[in-house]
UniProtKB/TrEMBL annotation, chain A:
Its main location: membrane. The keyword Transmembrane helix applies. InterPro entries: NADH_Q_OxRdtase_chainM/4, NADH_UbQ_OxRdtase, ND/Mrp_TM. This is NADH-quinone oxidoreductase subunit M. It is a multi-pass membrane protein. NCBIfam families: NDH_I_M (TIGR01972). The chain crosses the membrane at residues 76-96, 105-124, 130-147, 159-179, 210-231, 243-264, 276-295, 302-324, 330-350, 371-393, 405-425, 446-466. Belongs to the complex I subunit 4 family. It comes from the Bacteria.
UniProtKB/TrEMBL annotation, chain B:
It is a multi-pass membrane protein. Residues 114-410 form the NADH:quinone oxidoreductase/Mrp antiporter transmembrane domain. Keywords: Cell membrane, Membrane, NAD, Quinone, Translocase, Transmembrane, Transmembrane helix, Transport. It holds the Pfam family Proton_antipo_M. It comes from the Bacteria. GO terms for molecular function: NADH dehydrogenase (quinone) (non-electrogenic) activity; NADH dehydrogenase (ubiquinone) activity; quinone binding. NDH-1 shuttles electrons from NADH, via FMN and iron-sulfur (Fe-S) centers, to quinones in the respiratory chain. The immediate electron acceptor for the enzyme in this species is believed to be a menaquinone. Couples the redox reaction to proton translocation (for every two electrons transferred, four hydrogen ions are translocated across the cytoplasmic membrane), and thus conserves the redox energy in a proton gradient. This is NADH-quinone oxidoreductase subunit N.
């Protein structure tokens, strides 16, 4: 029951938002997202005490085809549910600053998207998973398209086509798997699309080899992994800040999560067959993103490429298929979600004040904006993976995992720490330090509501950095069971 | 059967209502008739199959289900004929009467058990449509459409009739079940070429009616010239009835000849998907895009025929049913919005939809839902339609065809996004910046169409697997 409330509360709020305007709409949107977070926190505490069985929800959805509306939670999905519910109120708060036209529609789409994301993280039925996977795409397309920058039409079309094409391949893979299954216990249908039924399939290595790419196509585009990334920098740059935060903070994690739950355990043989090429692609992405980030002049684009570099590292960690790499990916999903949302919010705060996000136009902001500088620095250092921050724990574990797989690959991937220090410190230097520019003369410091966004982010950065055990403990059984399913 | 009687009687009554000076009673009257027909049709659900006219027509689950789709489609489409009422169109009573008669033809095509009944049904439907294509008699494009449709249609009917005659010559009967027996155990092997030519000619004839490539060439021109209201009727009712008839013919009468017709249908299917989707992607007006899109949907439905495997109850038949329903609802919604916008803004290209998201949020939303459904994106009925059909086809081992269909639906996503981009992402300018007037009944119907599409996309379980 609670699971259903958790899933549908944002959707209900989104529908209600249609009838509200102005301050009421804000209060409703923020209120709903906060209640949702409280609910998720309650579930998390309860989960840590009693385990997951209470959160299983299973109804026949399309009875004649054996498709079920099956939701459930384990440590892994719970962490992503927590991340989503934690970030959405902050993203809404950030959206309140933006003066977007037709604001209640904007908030409604954000909440609609939240339902889609939560559905992706909780689904235990392949077609339900695909359903929510696409449901999450529709609102973000409109958010990025209707409120985006000048080149939004071409850019969002590319984004939409890339992701839909990727997910159609995944759907094709799922249909194939579905037709291999037998009937579920007590069901009249000939097949079952339950995740557990997919886990039980005995597929030959040859089948798994191509199935791997069918399913991975969707995840590779979503993450995105080199060379499927070409939609990403443009979309991140053209989308309005809250949409970029949703894309980079949460949506990207759908790809990593999908790999962990819907790829590794289903086609383990295909996975080990393609492990090496994919890790190499991921590490190429790490280096490629970082090198391009160094050359960027646009703040948002720079952060977009930095995100590309970091997600490459997460993918490489997952594909190292070691306990430590997988755990690192889990922590880094949380840390990266927090960091990247913070970074994009900084960029947005500066752009709203100065009207530009070009590095050559900026400089010397720090004298007039001490609070912004501090928040910026914390987010930046966590992204660089300085010890004590969440980014450090995540990247350390990831690199350790990749090193276990291959020392050489680990060494190359490790360059990310140096590169990210280069481009991020350059970013800080060009914006906050140095001589004043004409744009920075009138800048004001953070307001109360902006601070309200940063404080929870900073708290979480240090929490992840100092006590990662809280989260690692939750995800450990789930990660172990994935590794067992793969046979490692 | 009650529905056929009701429709025929009220069709004639409708003709006499034309003597009234006022058009005002016509629309409510015809809506009530269709509601009654819809109810009468549903009352036959879950009854034992009944046979009429010396076993020429059967009313069973199959008939009731597909009749439900065509009547519902007509019902949901009618409110968009309001502009004719407002404009005091002098021939409105005749239009409505022809629509009712054409529904009689559609129901006969769905319920036939005898090739003569099929032929009579197709003719009743087609002749009504030839006339209605030319409804705007002072518009030369409408005249062109009617003439083109009539000449091509008459030619195709001739081919169909020739096919029926050859089939009769080879099997000695018009009844579907007896044809099946005769095809399964041919009495005289020297008649086999006649049988195969007959089957081929029938496939060509019906393929023309449902606009399957390579017999689709008339579709874009006729759809474009025909007044939008009747185009919507053509692309939904005619197609649904045509596919119901097609499936019945192949599955009931000709399962034994599957080795002959399956490759033919597969080739038609691939060609239809290719020409429909690539053609639609190249269009610049919404109406022509929808015309090509209706060709492409014929392609998806042909996959159902390929996977039908001689059964009116299996996953493929159910897939065709669900797909036709989802497609009809989304198409009515798309044409409904297009008609309202095009009537007001006097243009039917993509740019005519610019800024609709701001001026008419309801119209834009309904159009968006319709486009997503036609593109097969989840949350809409169109997704489950494609899903059921393609899964059924993969289950029968037609993997290559399904992969091709999936690739083609990727092309589809591109052109279905174009109206959405125009409505939400491009600003309205000049005369297009004012709101399009929508009356209460139309707004209600549009809301209902969007709701039905979403309900089919969220709770497909109600209607999947009912056959």
């Amino acid at each position: 029951m609670l699971t259903a409330v958790l899933l549908f509360l944002p959707l209900a709020a989104a529908l209600l938002l249609h009838f509200t305007k102005g301050a009421t709409a804000r209060a409703l949107a923020l209120g709903a997202s906060l209640v949702e977070f409280a609910l998720a926190a309650f579930v998390a505490v309860d989960f840590a005490r009693h385990g997951s069985s209470a959160y299983n929800l299973d109804y026949a959805w399309v009875q004649s085809a054996g498709i079920n509306f099956h939701l459930g939670l384990d440590g892994l999905s719970l962490l992503l549910v927590l991340l989503t519910t934690f970030l959405v109120p902050l993203i809404l708060l950030a959206a309140f600053r933006g003066n977007y036209e037709n604001p209640s529609a904007f908030y409604a789409l954000v909440l609609f998207m939240q339902t889609g994301l939560l559905g992706v993280f909780m689904s235990l039925d392949a077609f339900l998973f695909y359903f929510f996977w696409e449901v999450a795409l529709i609102p973000i397309y409109f958010l990025a398209g209707a409120w985006g920058g000048e080149r939004r039409i071409a850019v969002t079309l590319k984004f939409f086509l890339y992701t839909v094409v990727g997910s159609l391949f995944m759907l094709a893979g799922f249909v194939y798997l579905y037709l291999q299954t037998g009937p579920a216990a007590g069901s009249l249908a000939a097949h079952s699309s339950e995740l557990s039924a997919f886990y039980k399939l005995k597929l030959s290595a040859g089948e798994q080899s191509w199935l791997f790419w069918l399913i991975f196509a969707a995840f590779a585009v979503k993450m995105p992994i080199f060379p499927f990334h070409t939609w990403q920098p443009d979309t991140y740059t053209e989308a309005p800040a809250p949409a970029t935060m949703l894309l980079s903070g949460i949506m990207l994690k759908m790809g990593i999560y999908g790999t962990l739950r819907w790829l590794l355990p289903i086609v383990p043989l295909g996975f080990s067959q393609w492990q090496k090429p994919v890790i190499i692609l991921a590490v190429i992405g790490v280096i490629y993103g970082a090198i391009i980030a160094i050359r960027q002049r646009d703040m948002k684009r720079l952060i977009a490429y930095s995100s590309l570099s970091h997600v490459g590292l997460m993918a490489a960690g997952v594909f190292s298929l070691t306990q430590i790499g997988l755990q690192g990916a889990v922590v880094q999903m949380l840390a990266h979600g927090v960091n990247v949302v913070g970074m994009f919010f900084v960029a947005d705060a500066i752009e709203r004040r100065t009207g530009t996000r070009q590095l050559p136009d900026l400089g010397g902001l720090t004298r007039r904006t001490p609070l912004l500088s501090v928040c910026f620095l914390v987010m930046l250092l966590s992204t660089v993976a300085l010890p004590l921050t969440g980014g450090f724990v995540g990247e350390f574990l990831l690199l350790a995992g990749i090193y276990q797989y291959s020392a050489w690959v680990g060494a190359v991937a490790g360059l990310t720490i140096i590169f990210s220090a280069v481009y991020l410190l350059r970013l800080f230097q060009r914006t906050m330090l140095g001589p004043d520019s004409s744009f920075s003369a009138t800048i004001t410091d953070l307001t109360g509501s902006e601070l309200l966004v940063f404080v929870p982010l900073i708290v979480l950065v240090f929490w992840l950095g100092l006590f990662p055990g809280t989260f690692l403990h939750l995800s450990e059984p789930a990660v172990s069971s994935i590794l067992t399913a793969v046979g490692r | 059967m009650t529905s056929i009687i009701l429709l025929s009687v009220f069709g004639i009554v409708q003709l006499f209502l034309g003597f009234l000076r006022s058009n005002k009673v016509l629309l409510p009257g015809v809506l009530l008739v269709l509601l009654a027909v819809f109810g009468a049709n549903l009352a036959d659900w879950n009854q034992a199959p009944q046979s009429f006219f010396n076993h020429m027509l059967t009313v069973d689950h199959y008939t009731v289900a597909f009749t439900g789709i065509v009547v519902l489609t007509a019902l949901l489409l009618l409110p968009f004929s309001r502009s004719y009422v407002v404009a005091h169109e002098p021939n409105l009573a005749e239009y409505y009467a022809l629509l009712l008669f054409s529904l009689v033809g559609a129901i006969m095509m769905i319920g036939y058990d005898h090739l003569l009944m099929l032929f009579v049904g197709i003719e009743i439907l087609s002749i009504s449509m030839y006339v209605l294509a030319g409804a705007s008699k002072r518009d030369s494009r409408s005249n062109e459409a009617a003439l083109k449709y009539f000449l091509m249609g008459a030619f195709a009917t001739g081919i169909l009739l020739f096919g029926i005659a050859l089939l009769y010559g080879a099997t000695g009967t018009f009844a579907l079940s007896q044809i099946a027996a005769a095809v399964a155990a041919p009495a005289n092997a020297s008649l086999l070429p006649m049988l195969y030519i007959g089957i081929l000619l029938m496939i060509i004839g019906i393929g023309f009616k449902v606009s399957a490539a390579p017999f689709h060439f008339w579709t874009p021109d006729v759809y474009e010239g025909t007044p939008t209201f009747f185009t919507a009727f053509m692309s939904t009712v005619v197609k649904t009835a045509g596919f119901a008839a097609f499936l019945k013919l192949l599955a009931v009468a000709l399962p034994a000849a599957q080795g002959f017709w399956a490759p033919t249908i597969q080739a038609m299917c691939a060609l239809t998907l290719l020409l429909g989707n690539v053609g639609a992607a190249a269009q610049t007006t919404t109406k022509r895009m929808l015309a090509y899109s209706s060709v492409s949907h014929a392609g998806y439905l042909l996959i159902g025929l390929v996977a039908g495997n001689g059964s009116l109850t299996g996953p493929a038949a159910n897939g065709i049913f669900f797909y036709s329903l989802a497609y009809s609802i989304a198409t009515v919604a798309a044409f409904g919005v297009l008609k309202l916008v095009a009537d007001h803004r006097q243009r039917d290209d993509y740019a005519g939809l610019n800024g609709l998201g701001k001026t008419n949020p309801l119209l834009a939303f309904v159009m968006t839902v319709a486009m997503l459904s036609l593109a097969g994106i989840p949350l809409t009925g169109g997704f489950f339609g494609k899903f059921f059909l393609l899964t059924a086809a993969v289950g029968q081992g037609h993997i290559g065809l399904v992969v091709f269909a999936v690739v083609m639906s990727m092309v589809g996503i591109y052109y279905y996004l174009r109206p959405i981009i125009a409505m939400y992402l491009r600003p309205a300018e000049g005369p297009t910046a004012e709101a399009v007037p929508v009356d209460g009944l139309q707004a209600f119907t549009l809301g209902l169409l969007a709701l039905l599409t979403i309900v089919l996309g969220i709770l497909p379980g109600f209607l999947s697997g009912i056959l």
